[in-house]
Amino acid sequence: MQIKIIRPLAAHEILDALENVSDNEEDYRERLICILPPPVDPDCLTDEDSGEEDNVTLNNLPRNILLQPAEVMIRGQIMVSGTEEEPSDSTGRTKRRRTYAWRKRDLAKNPVNWPDVQGACQDKRPIEWFENFLDEDVISLLVSESNKYAVKKNLPGDITTEDMKCFIGILLVSGYSWLPRRRMYWENTPDTKNELISSAMTRDRFDFIFRHLHVNDNLDLQDKYTKVRPLVTLLNKKFLEFSPLEEHYSVDEAMIPYYGRHGCKQHIKGKPIRYGFKAWVGATRLGYVLWMEPYQGATTMCNPIYKELGLGASVVLTFCDVLISRGFDLPYHVVFDNFFTGTPLLEEITKKGLRCTGTVRENRTSSCPLITSKLLKKKERGAVDYRTTHDNTFIIAKWHDNNIFSIASNAVGINPKQSAKRFSQSEKRNIVIEEPHMVSIYNKYMGGVDRSDENISHYRIGIRVSGLSGLRVLNGGRFTKL
Fold this sequence. Notes:
Pfam families: DDE_Tnp_1_7. The chain has 13 helices and 18 strands.
């Protein structure tokens, strides 16, 4: 294949262009700059180069080199000015950016008849549910690893299975019977002493297990959550085994509160829990968690085959693989927000035989010729503009509600429209507008992870790490320990 070159670029022009490229978490391409050697100066009396040969950086290149013609090489594919080729992938094949032919029509998909397939038995007592998730495998893991950790500190490793179950039970009680300090449960005062806890286990025995609670001794330096990885893996297996079999699932982020020091601690402004560990979660509409994966940046433990699609798509596709692993071969419907959605993700989910719906950012619509947000906002509330791919794979729509937002789906379209009640600020009354069907599906099933966060918040364990025992409140601009 011939490459047409309009004008060779100079080295400084390529450097300026690369510096102005915005950071893209989905772009993992390696770029190399090949600079042609400068012409020989006849007046030069030496053939030695200026500068240190072992410390050549972009900041100390001389002017005659920066002005030389140069080429950008991206994973073996030469990219010069005037080319329209995309860089090749790891297999050596040249990748091209996918372009779509758009048509102004609704998405035409056959309705899905969800089969009457039952999941796990739901008629169980609370203690039976407890034993399903924290079964002998999980308890044995905690007991064996905690005893190993105690022995390493020259202390007796005599924690038993009954001790560990009682320890976990006390933690659960602290979720609804809260006290500022854990030792208050054993105080001989009628206003704080908990007879159930104090009669089940002594204070010193609880402190011993608390200090030596351990999960993993075989550490993986590539995994920032390696100390709890076996527990996360076991719990995910139990979550999936006893999960209800439903059609719709949502994928979103959840926050686990933590105020100590750790490299994975996140701060998300505007969230109910602003400081803590972030986790990717897949859940049902009512908040049952099927799968969770702690977030640790670029090393997040998702399926590596999806790495080229970016972090958001990798999370969703990994959860789709979890659903497919159940073995029922059903057309599940996954809902997610605009952090994850993109046209490559829609195509990959379609190839897996699953359905999806999610809001999408305007710069991820693959140049879909929708009306601009400025013009759509001038129309009446409830106005919608949409386009479908020529092969009827998925639809992208833009809807005027309180604000303008875009949404995409490979399963449902605009019709049948539903009625939605909204408050009109200009008319000072409630009005009824038309809501696209895909928006109704999104609003109905997107809140599963938020529902699980709400359920957990009602009974969140009150006993924390000994170094942070007792809550710290802001008192006159200073943190004070209660």
